[in-house]
Design the sequence.
């Protein structure tokens, strides 16, 4: 989608080279100031990299357009400035000098406008995230220790995914990961080490799951995972890989192990699906979409 923007950068540089050599003549190598070439060339390369980075990483919109337009103008001026080290122009020709200097204030102004709009965008997103976090915390949907969602929120999310899976005829699985002997770890290492362990496990699960998946903390040492559009076989493989990665990365004592279980959701209600998962684990009514508590 952004290929045309990158191609336009190349065309602008080619245009700068074309008019430079059309209006001037190449300088003899012995009079070229290579220190100036190094400084001006480095500035041009860094500007190009910055503009390409903005184009590739940012979503389309007004802020991106301001940054790109300002950067493109600067690339044109900096290209002429660099070519000035290699090309000699007639003494009475001022056009190239104007093209080098006059567009730069416009380019910088567009960059400044882009930075101003970006700050407004950032403040707006920050306010939205703060409002969302406050809502989640007030409704006990966010675990304060791991910052993961709680089992209560998992129940709402699972019910939505059951409806979507029913409409799309796609498989849906839920899974859990349990840190066995976590109470022993807490007793031997202390609650601070236990809190740190839970936080690390939550981070690892979040990093290793797919973008469409969701992980929630369910009570002290258990984590619930929602796996949309995933068959039981795929979910089991995913959980096996997750368990192996957590065991490898945490370097925890041998008595502390990860137990996993996968449940293909065929129930029409989230409560029933969680109840069946709980019964299969002999946890009875433990999975009742209640708030997380350590």
Sequence:
């Amino acid at each position: 989608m952004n290929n045309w923007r990158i191609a336009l950068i190349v065309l602008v540089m080619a245009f700068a080279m074309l008019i430079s050599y059309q209006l001037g003549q190449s300088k003899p190598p012995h009079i070229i100031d290579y220190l100036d070439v190094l400084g001006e060339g480095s500035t041009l390369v860094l500007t190009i990299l910055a503009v390409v980075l903005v184009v590739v990483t940012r979503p389309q919109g007004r802020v991106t357009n301001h940054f790109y337009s300002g950067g493109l103008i600067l690339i044109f001026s900096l290209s002429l400035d660099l070519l000035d080290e290699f090309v000699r122009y007639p003494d009475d020709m001022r056009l190239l000098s104007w093209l080098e200097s006059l567009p730069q204030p416009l380019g910088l102004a567009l960059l400044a406008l882009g930075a101003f709009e970006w700050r407004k965008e950032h403040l707006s997103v920050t306010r939205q995230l703060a409002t969302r976090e406050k809502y989640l915390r007030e409704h006990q949907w966010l675990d304060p220790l791991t910052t993961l969602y709680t089992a209560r929120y998992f129940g709402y999310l699972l019910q939505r995914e059951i409806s979507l899976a029913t409409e799309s005829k796609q498989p849906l699985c839920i899974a859990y990961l349990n840190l066995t002997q976590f109470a022993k770890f807490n007793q031997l290492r202390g609650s601070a080490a236990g809190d740190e362990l839970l936080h690390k496990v939550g981070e690892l699960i979040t990093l290793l799951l797919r973008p469409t998946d969701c992980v929630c903390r369910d009570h002290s040492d258990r984590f619930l995972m929602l796996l949309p559009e995933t068959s039981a076989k795929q979910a089991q493989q995913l959980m096996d890989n997750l368990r192996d990665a957590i065991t490898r990365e945490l370097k925890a004592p041998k008595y502390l192990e990860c137990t996993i279980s996968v449940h293909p959701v065929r129930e029409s209600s989230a409560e029933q699906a969680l109840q069946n998962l709980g019964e299969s684990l002999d946890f009875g009514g433990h999975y009742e979409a209640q708030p997380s508590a350590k």
User: Anything to note?
Assistant: Confidence is low (pLDDT under 50) at residues 283-294. Residues 3-125 form one domain. The first helix runs from residue 3 to 23. The chain has two domains: 3-125, 149-286.
